[in-house]
Amino acid sequence: MMVQPAAPMTHSAAAGRVRSSAIRDLLAVAGRDDVISLAGGMPAPEAFPTRELADAIAGLLAHDPGGALQYSATEGYGPLRERIAADHSPGPDHVLVTSGSQQALELVVRTLVDPGADVVLADPGYVGAIQVLRLVGAHLVGVASDDDGLLVDDLGRRLARGLRPALVYLVPNFDNPTGASLSAERARALAHLADHYGFVIVVDDPYRHLRWAGEAPPPLESLTGRVVTLGSFSKVFCPGLRVGYAVAPPPTIRAMALVKQAADLHTASLNQRATYQLISEPGFLESHLVRLRSLYQAKAAALVAALHVRLGDRLAFREPEGGMFIWGRLTSAGAGAEALLGPAIAAGVAFVPGAAFGVGSGLTRHLRLSFATATADRLDVAAERLGRALSASEASFAAS
Q: What CATH architecture does domain 70-280 belong to?
């Protein structure tokens, strides 16, 4: 009997709303041995606490394999929730442990945002947030930012004209991609707007421990009760653990836990307990963060110096005070960042064009550079290759 070929599978409308991340697409190219990647926002492998993590896992498997390898509560491992709560909230019932902060973001969006609802975020904005919001069918409202973060006055004017977002999403410490931090004045103004207009502020804060200069904004959760804070151990320890969290009022946490049950039941038990072992070891976290900040500060200084030497005033940028990124703007004549990417990869260096982060259009002359992964010597080589590619792009543009 001849079996008729099946019709192609049809996909949901939600799947059709999500586009592939340009950053994820770049990883295949950036992973080549002949390419130095300034593209991915990946932490430095030499900073991973491999020995301490191995000891923690070995101890768990030796002394409590049943607990470490068994199913566990959706809300997360109790002692880890208590430890997170001690930094953020009145109690562990305000905490949900998630499979990375990306899942925390998806859970809060699925819990608080209906299809078609307005959601405000910085433009340019974090690609992962843009993807999640498009997946649920939200209407993205981009608000510009500058060196002091989101332009809260602009948001206030839009709210006065009738904008009613379900939530406002922002990265207050070392925004991805711009590296900006929200000023204290704007943090207070944003909290006031949330209380007045009734929207929720989603604070995504994975880089808050990576500050080596400047002043951190006051925690928004200390200024208003209308905040959900997302955190992660990916940038502190290593992303492979996939341990993140959300801090929110208990009714929101309970609702997010129900959504998480449908997604993955719970975050990996072994990873949660190993993370708890690391952060509860007396003195370890504090000394580890000192080393981490020193490492990234040195890498940032190396790339800043190399860019000044190799590109001069052809690339304008603000020197970072923390985080992992430099947000640059091409100032010389040329076709723009997207046209530069091909010659740059051919020269052996990768970056992310600014348009990948756009909520609207524009950003054609911007690019994001990450200094976190490469060594200082390689960062200098990367800047030299980028300068060479830019010179070739300028020449080609002038000849056209």
A: 3-Layer(aba) Sandwich (3.40)
